[in-house]
C-alpha cells in the first residue's frame, strides 16, 4: 500500500509522516505526485486527485472533500446556516424537531453573529449596495448607535482585509483604501506588511456585527492586562458523515490589551489571528492550550474554572455539529461529504463574557505551523485522531485502540454523495 503525502509546510509534512510510522508503518510514503492511483492521499487540497476518489471509492482514501465551500467560505457559511435555520423554523412549526435537537439549534442560532453578505468590485459599488443588501445596516449606522461592525473578505486568510467600522463614511474609506491597493498592484508596487486586499479580485465580503462583550483574560497569569482571545478548535469530518472534535484546543490571544473599538485604534487589540501578530510575538504568552486557561484571571476579577472550560467544550461541540449538519442539509451543492474521505478544519470560536460561544469561521487546510513547537502535541493529537477516527476506520481496521480524546459532534447519514 502506498500513500501520497505532500504539504507545503514542513511542520505539517513531518507530523503526518510521523503518524504514518506510528499507525501504518507498512505503508510506503511518496512525496512526489504519483502518475498512477495510490490507496491513500494525505496531502494539500490542491494536490489531491479527486477523480481517483470518485472512480474507486472502495480502494482510495483522500484527506479532503472536493466540495466544501459551504463551510470554508465566509459568505457561503453564513448563507448556508441562515437557510438551515429557516428550514428548522418550519420543522419547529409542525413539531418535527425533538427537544434535544431544538436546544442545539438554538445554540447555533445564538452562536451566529448578525451578518450581511455583499459583492463589491470597486468603492463606487457601495452606493447601490447600501440602498439594497445593506439597507438595514445603513439605517443602524445613521441612527448614531454605538454599534461597530467588522468587514471580512469571504476568501482571504491571515487577517487580510479585515477592518472595523461604525459609519458609512468609514466603510467608504476602507473600500477606497482597497481600490488604491489594487492600483498599486497594477503598477507593481506592493507593501508586504499591508493587510489590504484588492476588491476587484476578491469581490465577495461579509459584514458582521462586532461582538462587543468578549471574555477578557490576562494571558500573563497576572491581573493587570486583559486581552481578547479566540479558540482554535480542530474538527475532523469523516466519511458521509461523522464529525469529531479533539479536545486538544488552542487559545489564541491578541497581542495588545483590549479596549472598546475606536477609529484611531490598532487592530492588534481586536484581532486574535496569530499570523497578524508578527514573528516576534511571545508565543508562550499569546498562544496557549485550553487547559492553560484554568486559573487565569478575567477582567471581572474571577478565575477561569474547569467547569467553565467544560461548558465551552460542550457548547462548541453542539454548535459545530449543527453547523456541519446545516451544510449537509442546506448547502449540499457546495458541501458534499463522500464515504472514502476525511478532512480536518480549523474552526474559530469566540467566548463572550457570559460564556456564550460564537462561531466565527471554518478554515480548510488550517495552518498548523502557527501552533509553534511548544504546543506541537496539540497538532500531533489532531493528526493522530485523523488516523484513529479517519483512515483506520475507512480501511476497516477497527481493532485499534483510541488514544486521542474526542467528542463526537455529529453522526449523520448523507444520502446524496457522488
TrEMBL record:
PROSITE patterns the UniProt entry points to: TTL
Gene3D superfamilies assigned to the protein according to its UniProt record, in alphabetical order: ATP-grasp fold, B domain
Bias kind Acidic residues: ranges: 178-194
Region (Disordered): 178-198
One GO term describing the cellular component: P-body
Annotated source species: Wallemia mellicola
Pfam families (UniProt xref): TTL (PF03133)
The protein's name in its UniProt record: TTL-domain-containing protein
Amino acid at each position: 500500500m502506498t500513500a501520497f503525502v505532500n504539504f507545503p509546510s514542513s511542520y505539517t509534512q513531518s507530523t503526518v509522516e510521523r503518524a504514518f510510522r506510528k499507525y501504518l508503518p507498512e505503508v510506503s510514503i511518496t512525496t512526489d505526485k504519483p502518475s498512477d492511483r495510490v490507496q491513500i492521499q494525505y496531502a494539500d487540497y490542491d494536490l489531491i486527485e479527486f477523480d481517483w476518489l470518485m472512480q474507486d471509492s472502495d480502494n482510495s482514501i483522500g484527506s479532503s472533500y472536493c466540495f466544501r465551500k459551504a463551510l470554508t467560505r465566509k459568505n457561503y457559511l453564513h448563507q448556508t446556516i441562515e437557510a438551515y435555520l429557516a428550514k428548522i423554523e418550519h420543522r419547529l412549526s409542525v413539531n418535527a424537531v425533538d427537544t434535544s435537537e431544538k436546544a442545539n439549534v438554538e445554540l447555533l442560532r445564538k452562536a451566529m453573529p448578525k451578518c450581511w453578505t455583499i459583492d463589491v468590485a470597486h468603492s463606487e459599488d457601495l452606493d447601490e449596495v447600501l440602498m439594497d443588501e445593506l439597507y438595514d445596516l445603513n439605517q443602524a449606522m445613521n441612527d448614531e448607535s454605538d454599534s461597530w461592525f467588522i468587514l471580512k473578505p469571504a476568501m482571504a486568510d491571515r487577517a487580510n482585509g479585515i477592518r472595523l467600522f461604525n459609519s458609512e463614511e468609514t466603510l467608504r474609506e476602507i473600500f477606497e483604501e482597497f481600490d488604491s491597493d489594487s492600483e498599486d498592484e497594477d503598477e507593481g508596487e506592493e507593501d508586504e506588511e499591508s493587510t489590504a486586499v484588492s476588491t476587484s479580485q476578491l469581490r465577495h465580503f461579509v459584514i458582521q456585527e462586532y461582538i462587543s462583550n468578549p471574555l477578557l483574560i490576562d494571558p500573563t497569569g497576572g491581573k493587570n492586562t486583559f486581552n481578547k482571545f479566540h479558540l482554535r478548535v480542530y474538527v475532523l469530518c469523516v466519511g458521509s458523515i461523522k464529525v469529531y472534535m479533539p479536545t486538544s484546543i488552542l487559545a489564541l490571544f491578541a497581542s495588545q490589551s483590549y479596549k472598546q473599538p475606536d477609529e484611531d485604534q490598532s487592530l492588534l487589540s481586536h484581532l486574535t489571528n496569530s499570523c497578524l501578530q508578527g514573528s516576534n510575538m511571545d508565543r508562550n504568552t499569546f498562544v496557549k492550550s485550553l487547559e492553560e486557561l484554568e486559573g487565569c484571571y478575567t477582567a471581572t476579577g474571577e478565575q477561569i474554572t474547569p467547569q467553565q472550560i467544560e461548558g465551552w467544550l460542550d457548547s462548541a461541540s453542539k454548535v459545530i455539529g449543527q453547523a456541519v449538519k446545516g451544510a449537509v442539509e442546506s448547502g449540499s451543492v457546495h458541501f458534499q461529504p463522500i464515504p472514502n474521505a476525511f478532512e480536518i478544519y480549523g474552526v474559530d470560536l469566540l467566548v463572550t463574557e457570559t460564556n456564550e460561544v460564537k462561531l466565527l469561521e471554518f478554515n480548510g487546510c488550517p495552518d498548523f505551523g502557527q501552533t509553534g513547537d511548544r504546543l506541537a502535541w496539540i497538532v500531533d493529537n489532531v493528526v493522530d485522531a485523523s488516523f484513529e477516527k479517519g483512515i483506520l476506520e475507512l480501511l476497516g481496521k477497527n481493532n485499534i485502540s483510541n488514544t486521542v480524546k474526542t467528542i463526537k459532534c455529529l453522526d449523520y447519514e448523507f444520502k446524496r454523495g457522488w
